[in-house]
Amino acid sequence: MTYCSARPSAAGVLHVAPVPLRRAHLTETLQKATLEAMFSVTSKPVHTDARFTVSDFRPCYRSLDEADLKRRLLAALRELEDCAACPRNCHVNRAANETGVCDTGRYARVSSVFPHFGEEDCLRGWRGSGTIFFSLCNLRCVFCQNWDISRQAAGTEVTGAGIAGLMIELQAMGCHNINFVTPEHVVPQVIEAIVAAIPLGLNLPIVYNTSSYDSLESLRLLDGLIDIYMPDFKFWHSESAKRLSKAKDYPERAREAILEMHRQVGPLTFTPDGLAGRGVLLRHLVMPGQLDESAAIFKWLADEVSPDTYVNVMGQYRPEYQVDKADSEGRKKYADINRRPRRDELAGAIEAAHSAGLWRLDERWLN
Ligand code: SF4
């Protein structure tokens, strides 16, 4: 599951209710003034580098014609019939509601929908990032901070048309973007929703907020629909990925995926008022005792993707979920990550990013 930069407070979460109630609840309870009072967010963020500023931003999907959208929709629905939507390659027929590793059948499960004020400044802006949080996941991270969502069928199954309605509601509330969190296993359903939302008047950039355990086929179907890719890059070594996320091929798949995302949208650009417009915003969560992994990831990013990659070096790791678990002989299985990273480790990760040649580090997290 992707990291949530801050889990929303109970006051800010809208758990998905049955469709007839949901729309009224969204519009009645979270008007703009309430949002600003609730989260004390009133000022605009500032990004002033002219090289990464776009003055005439328009969501990329607005340039696609009807035939192209229809072609993508059909390809997405076909993908469900013999599912290889992510690197697990389960080849189950999800159109007939069969399930594979992600436990998700024909319809995506939505756990919450809300204007998110805990994301990066360029996403949350002053009216929030319109977040749609999917349940379940294709990874098995033993340290997942969202395990109550990623490992349980929380929330409600929602059709593509239903998700499109949620997107339009978030837009009507003034959110700056639509932020799909943990979409790797529901790419066909995400495409279905975007295609349904365009004729309803959707006009916001879409954020694809992913663990990076994505298939190239799925990402290619998203080319031209997604303006902002927000990939995590968790591990460099496959042994770590196998032990901690049960996906030995994670580093290889993540490298392929991030290169494809960068090919599609390039380095992150901003609108004149400091909001993310288009590009890759990469996150890396610093883990205790894994500075070598962080350094290798940053070097690869600078050398093979671009030194202009916008990177959020995240310091909020905390032991969660199965990290404190002991084996049958009472030994802690994950003792090495059963603590928060020290200040010197966080400073070392930031130093490693600079040494690699990365210079666009998300400033909010560095102060
Ligand atoms: S999306 Fe789900 S069913 Fe499809 S390949 Fe991935 S884990 Fe398996």
Short recap of the structure:
The chain is of the alpha/beta class. It is built from 12 helices and 10 strands. 35% of the residues lie in helices and 14% in strands.
Structure, described:
- Helix content is 35%, strand content 14%.
- The protein has twelve helices and ten strands.
- α1 (19-29) runs parallel beside α6 (160-172).
- It is globular.
- With 367 residues, it is of the alpha/beta class.
- A hairpin with a 5-residue loop joins β7 (269-270) and β8.
- Strands 1, 2, 3, 4, 5, 6, 7, 8, 9 and 10 form a ten-stranded mixed beta sheet that branches.
- It has one domain: TIM Barrel (Alpha-Beta Barrel), CATH 3.20.20.
- It has helices spanning 19-29, 32-39, 66-81, 121-124, 147-150, 160-172, 187-197, 216-222, 238-245, 250-265, 291-305, 343-356, and strands at residues 108-116, 129-134, 156-158, 178-181, 206-210, 228-231, 269-270, 276-285, 310-314, 360-361.
- The structure holds iron/sulfur cluster.
- Iron/sulfur cluster is lined by residues 83-86, 88-90, 92, 94, 100-102, 104, 138, 185.
The total number of structural domains is 1
Percent strand: 5-15%
Number of strands: 10
Helix count from the secondary structure assignment? 12
